[in-house]
Amino acid sequence: MTIICKQCGVELDKGMDECPLCHLAPGEEATEQTLRANKSVMLIKQKMNLWLAFSVISFSTIAFTILINLIIDSSLNWSLYVAGSVFSAWAYYSIYTFFRHYISMWVSLALSVTLGNLLLIDVLSDGNFWFIKLGLPIASGAFILSGVFHFISRHVKYQGFNLLGYALLVIVLLSLIVESALGLYKTDEIQLWWSLFVAISATPISLILLFIHYRLGKGNNLKSFFHI
Fold this sequence. Notes:
Elements: E1 3-4, E2 11-12, H1 32-73, H2 78-99, H3 103-124, H4 131-155, H5 161-187, H6 194-217, H7 222-225
Antiparallel strand pairs: 1-2
Helix pairs in contact: 1-2, 2-3, 3-4, 4-5, 5-6
């Protein structure tokens, strides 16, 4: 007699003690708690299978690229760029897969991967040595500001105009960091020009958005705020 799992509809072979999908015994009905647990297990397995598949593809690509470079040129040159980029992509995906809910860990690990890749490119690009003055401050500033914005967006009580205001402030700070780093790299001096225009233009708008959100949070609607 054929046995069908009541939960999944899967046909079970003789002698099987449980369904291979939901792990319920033949004839057993799943409770809500069991369904949630099984769904969580299946999501974890799916995530791990995707990560393993991506890992195999990534490292196979790196190995073949290096092998081709050695065969053609008898040395490693262009393949290092490809290997570094593919490894960085694998590292980002791994960090997202395992640490996306831990913002401090995610930011620090992703920043380390980015800085390592930039340093590799700098070393391979005929010793221009732009990493310390250019790559390090810009990448660090971008990741730190992104982490701060993500932290704020997850912990504010209400999300609305305030997120737009915080995003504009992040853009202002990043603009100042980028132009400062460019000035130090070119002339060994901090020279602010276009970033000041960004700051002067965006900061008042940001403050207005934050104030509107504050007033709305106090129960005022937009009509009363603008006296319509």
